[in-house]
Amino acid sequence: MTQGQTDIERDDRDSFMRLLGGRGSAVDASLPPVAFGAGWFLGGESIVIGSAAAMIVGAILGGYRLRKGARPLAVLISLLVVMLGALIAIRTGDAADFFLPRLASNALSALAWMTSIAIRWPLLGVVVGFALRQGRRWRHDPVLLRAYSRASWVWVGQYLVRLVVFIPLWLAGATGPLTVAQLVLTWPLVAVCVAVSWWVMRRCLPADHPGIRHPREPAM
Protein backbone atom coordinates (compact mmCIF):
# COMPACT_ATOMS: atom_id res chain seq x y z
CA MET A 1 0.00 0.00 0.00
CA THR A 2 1.40 3.40 -0.95
CA GLN A 3 1.75 6.34 1.42
CA GLY A 4 -1.06 8.14 -0.42
CA GLN A 5 -3.42 5.19 0.00
CA THR A 6 -2.51 4.95 3.68
CA ASP A 7 -3.29 8.63 4.18
CA ILE A 8 -6.64 8.29 2.40
CA GLU A 9 -7.60 5.29 4.51
CA ARG A 10 -6.58 7.06 7.72
CA ASP A 11 -8.60 10.16 6.78
CA ASP A 12 -11.62 8.01 5.89
CA ARG A 13 -11.34 6.09 9.15
CA ASP A 14 -11.09 9.27 11.20
CA SER A 15 -14.08 10.79 9.37
CA PHE A 16 -16.09 7.60 9.86
CA MET A 17 -15.29 7.38 13.58
CA ARG A 18 -16.02 11.07 14.12
CA LEU A 19 -19.36 10.92 12.30
CA LEU A 20 -20.60 7.75 13.98
CA GLY A 21 -18.85 7.72 17.33
CA GLY A 22 -21.85 9.28 19.01
CA ARG A 23 -20.16 9.33 22.42
CA GLY A 24 -22.17 12.30 23.66
CA SER A 25 -25.54 10.92 22.59
CA ALA A 26 -24.71 7.44 23.92
CA VAL A 27 -23.70 8.84 27.30
CA ASP A 28 -26.84 10.98 27.39
CA ALA A 29 -28.94 7.91 26.67
CA SER A 30 -27.40 5.95 29.53
CA LEU A 31 -27.37 8.54 32.34
CA PRO A 32 -31.15 9.00 32.93
CA PRO A 33 -31.76 5.21 33.21
CA VAL A 34 -28.78 4.93 35.56
CA ALA A 35 -30.22 7.80 37.60
CA PHE A 36 -33.58 5.99 37.66
CA GLY A 37 -31.99 2.76 38.88
CA ALA A 38 -29.92 4.54 41.51
CA GLY A 39 -32.87 6.63 42.72
CA TRP A 40 -35.13 3.57 42.79
CA PHE A 41 -32.62 1.54 44.81
CA LEU A 42 -31.51 4.28 47.22
CA GLY A 43 -35.10 5.45 47.68
CA GLY A 44 -36.25 2.09 48.99
CA GLU A 45 -37.38 0.83 45.59
CA SER A 46 -39.56 3.88 45.05
CA ILE A 47 -40.57 4.33 41.42
CA VAL A 48 -41.47 7.97 42.07
CA ILE A 49 -38.02 8.77 43.45
CA GLY A 50 -36.34 6.90 40.62
CA SER A 51 -38.47 8.71 38.05
CA ALA A 52 -37.74 12.09 39.60
CA ALA A 53 -34.00 11.36 39.54
CA ALA A 54 -34.16 10.32 35.89
CA MET A 55 -36.11 13.41 34.84
CA ILE A 56 -33.81 15.76 36.76
CA VAL A 57 -30.74 14.24 35.14
CA GLY A 58 -32.48 14.28 31.74
CA ALA A 59 -33.36 17.96 32.15
CA ILE A 60 -29.80 18.87 33.17
CA LEU A 61 -28.38 17.00 30.19
CA GLY A 62 -30.93 18.64 27.90
CA GLY A 63 -29.97 22.11 29.09
CA TYR A 64 -26.29 21.32 28.68
CA ARG A 65 -26.79 20.02 25.14
CA LEU A 66 -28.83 23.07 24.16
CA ARG A 67 -26.01 25.32 25.36
CA LYS A 68 -23.62 23.27 23.22
CA GLY A 69 -25.77 23.85 20.15
CA ALA A 70 -27.75 20.61 20.01
CA ARG A 71 -30.97 20.60 18.02
CA PRO A 72 -33.95 21.41 20.27
CA LEU A 73 -36.03 18.61 18.69
CA ALA A 74 -33.39 15.99 19.54
CA VAL A 75 -33.23 17.24 23.13
CA LEU A 76 -37.03 17.24 23.40
CA ILE A 77 -37.29 13.66 22.10
CA SER A 78 -34.70 12.49 24.65
CA LEU A 79 -36.67 14.13 27.47
CA LEU A 80 -39.95 12.66 26.23
CA VAL A 81 -38.46 9.14 26.23
CA VAL A 82 -37.43 9.59 29.87
CA MET A 83 -40.85 10.99 30.81
CA LEU A 84 -42.67 8.22 28.96
CA GLY A 85 -40.67 5.54 30.75
CA ALA A 86 -41.37 7.18 34.09
CA LEU A 87 -45.10 7.47 33.40
CA ILE A 88 -45.35 3.85 32.31
CA ALA A 89 -43.50 2.61 35.40
CA ILE A 90 -45.63 4.73 37.72
CA ARG A 91 -48.80 3.59 35.97
CA THR A 92 -47.99 -0.13 36.10
CA GLY A 93 -46.22 -0.09 39.45
CA ASP A 94 -43.32 -2.07 37.97
CA ALA A 95 -39.97 -0.29 37.97
CA ALA A 96 -38.68 -2.46 35.13
CA ASP A 97 -41.30 -0.92 32.85
CA PHE A 98 -39.27 2.30 32.86
CA PHE A 99 -37.13 0.57 30.23
CA LEU A 100 -40.04 -0.32 27.93
CA PRO A 101 -39.61 2.71 25.61
CA ARG A 102 -35.97 1.74 25.15
CA LEU A 103 -36.94 -1.83 24.31
CA ALA A 104 -39.38 -0.53 21.73
CA SER A 105 -36.81 1.90 20.35
CA ASN A 106 -34.24 -0.83 19.82
CA ALA A 107 -36.79 -3.13 18.18
CA LEU A 108 -37.96 -0.38 15.81
CA SER A 109 -34.36 0.62 15.05
CA ALA A 110 -33.41 -2.96 14.16
CA LEU A 111 -36.45 -3.20 11.87
CA ALA A 112 -35.66 0.16 10.23
CA TRP A 113 -32.04 -0.79 9.54
CA MET A 114 -33.01 -4.19 8.11
CA THR A 115 -35.64 -2.57 5.91
CA SER A 116 -33.14 0.01 4.66
CA ILE A 117 -30.76 -2.76 3.62
CA ALA A 118 -33.53 -4.66 1.85
CA ILE A 119 -34.56 -1.62 -0.23
CA ARG A 120 -30.92 -0.78 -1.01
CA TRP A 121 -30.87 2.42 1.01
CA PRO A 122 -28.68 1.22 3.91
CA LEU A 123 -28.99 3.68 6.75
CA LEU A 124 -25.26 3.68 7.37
CA GLY A 125 -24.78 5.10 3.89
CA VAL A 126 -27.61 7.57 4.39
CA VAL A 127 -26.10 8.89 7.62
CA VAL A 128 -22.51 9.09 6.38
CA GLY A 129 -23.52 10.39 2.94
CA PHE A 130 -25.64 13.13 4.47
CA ALA A 131 -22.89 14.14 6.90
CA LEU A 132 -20.36 14.29 4.05
CA ARG A 133 -22.84 16.26 1.89
CA GLN A 134 -22.72 13.69 -0.89
CA GLY A 135 -26.42 13.65 -1.65
CA ARG A 136 -27.16 10.39 -3.48
CA ARG A 137 -23.76 10.02 -5.08
CA TRP A 138 -22.73 7.21 -2.73
CA ARG A 139 -25.64 5.10 -4.04
CA HIS A 140 -24.32 5.40 -7.60
CA ASP A 141 -21.14 3.58 -6.58
CA PRO A 142 -22.09 -0.14 -6.50
CA VAL A 143 -18.99 -1.11 -4.52
CA LEU A 144 -19.64 1.55 -1.89
CA LEU A 145 -23.34 0.68 -1.78
CA ARG A 146 -22.49 -2.97 -1.13
CA ALA A 147 -20.01 -2.00 1.58
CA TYR A 148 -22.55 0.19 3.36
CA SER A 149 -25.15 -2.58 3.13
CA ARG A 150 -22.88 -5.18 4.70
CA ALA A 151 -21.61 -2.82 7.38
CA SER A 152 -25.20 -1.85 8.23
CA TRP A 153 -25.78 -5.41 9.44
CA VAL A 154 -23.34 -4.67 12.26
CA TRP A 155 -25.70 -1.94 13.43
CA VAL A 156 -28.65 -4.31 13.21
CA GLY A 157 -26.66 -6.64 15.42
CA GLN A 158 -26.14 -3.86 17.97
CA TYR A 159 -29.89 -3.47 18.45
CA LEU A 160 -30.49 -7.20 18.53
CA VAL A 161 -27.84 -7.69 21.21
CA ARG A 162 -29.64 -5.18 23.41
CA LEU A 163 -32.97 -6.90 22.84
CA VAL A 164 -31.53 -10.32 23.65
CA VAL A 165 -30.21 -8.94 26.95
CA PHE A 166 -33.01 -6.54 27.85
CA ILE A 167 -36.09 -8.66 27.14
CA PRO A 168 -35.36 -11.52 29.60
CA LEU A 169 -34.36 -8.99 32.29
CA TRP A 170 -37.54 -7.00 31.70
CA LEU A 171 -39.69 -10.12 31.84
CA ALA A 172 -38.01 -11.03 35.12
CA GLY A 173 -38.62 -7.53 36.51
CA ALA A 174 -34.90 -7.17 37.18
CA THR A 175 -34.58 -3.40 37.51
CA GLY A 176 -31.04 -3.43 38.90
CA PRO A 177 -29.59 -5.65 36.17
CA LEU A 178 -31.50 -3.64 33.55
CA THR A 179 -29.80 -0.49 34.83
CA VAL A 180 -26.37 -2.11 34.59
CA ALA A 181 -27.15 -3.51 31.13
CA GLN A 182 -28.27 -0.08 29.93
CA LEU A 183 -24.94 1.38 31.03
CA VAL A 184 -22.81 -1.37 29.50
CA LEU A 185 -24.75 -1.60 26.24
CA THR A 186 -24.71 2.09 25.32
CA TRP A 187 -21.36 3.78 24.73
CA PRO A 188 -19.16 0.64 25.00
CA LEU A 189 -21.38 -1.23 22.54
CA VAL A 190 -21.61 1.77 20.21
CA ALA A 191 -17.81 2.04 20.20
CA VAL A 192 -17.47 -1.64 19.27
CA CYS A 193 -20.17 -1.26 16.61
CA VAL A 194 -18.43 1.70 14.99
CA ALA A 195 -15.06 -0.10 14.97
CA VAL A 196 -16.45 -3.34 13.55
CA SER A 197 -18.56 -1.61 10.90
CA TRP A 198 -15.49 0.32 9.75
CA TRP A 199 -13.55 -2.97 9.52
CA VAL A 200 -16.36 -4.45 7.41
CA MET A 201 -16.33 -1.37 5.17
CA ARG A 202 -12.60 -1.65 4.58
CA ARG A 203 -12.88 -5.38 3.83
CA CYS A 204 -15.53 -4.65 1.21
CA LEU A 205 -13.69 -1.83 -0.57
CA PRO A 206 -10.90 -2.81 -2.98
CA ALA A 207 -7.44 -1.32 -2.51
CA ASP A 208 -7.86 1.00 -5.49
CA HIS A 209 -11.15 2.50 -4.29
CA PRO A 210 -10.86 6.24 -3.48
CA GLY A 211 -12.72 5.85 -0.16
CA ILE A 212 -15.99 6.88 1.43
CA ARG A 213 -15.45 10.58 0.75
CA HIS A 214 -15.04 10.04 -2.99
CA PRO A 215 -17.77 7.81 -4.43
CA ARG A 216 -17.06 6.57 -7.93
CA GLU A 217 -19.38 7.63 -10.70
CA PRO A 218 -20.99 4.71 -12.59
CA ALA A 219 -19.30 3.76 -15.84
CA MET A 220 -21.11 5.09 -18.91
TrEMBL record:
Which keywords does this Swiss-Prot/TrEMBL entry list? Answer: Membrane, Transmembrane, Transmembrane helix
Give the transmembrane region(s). 40-61, 73-90, 110-132, 153-173, 179-200
Q: One Pfam family of this protein, by short name? A: DUF3159
Q: What is this protein called?
A: Uncharacterized protein DUF3159
Please name the taxonomic classification of the source: Bacteria, Bacillati, Actinomycetota, Actinomycetes, Pseudonocardiales
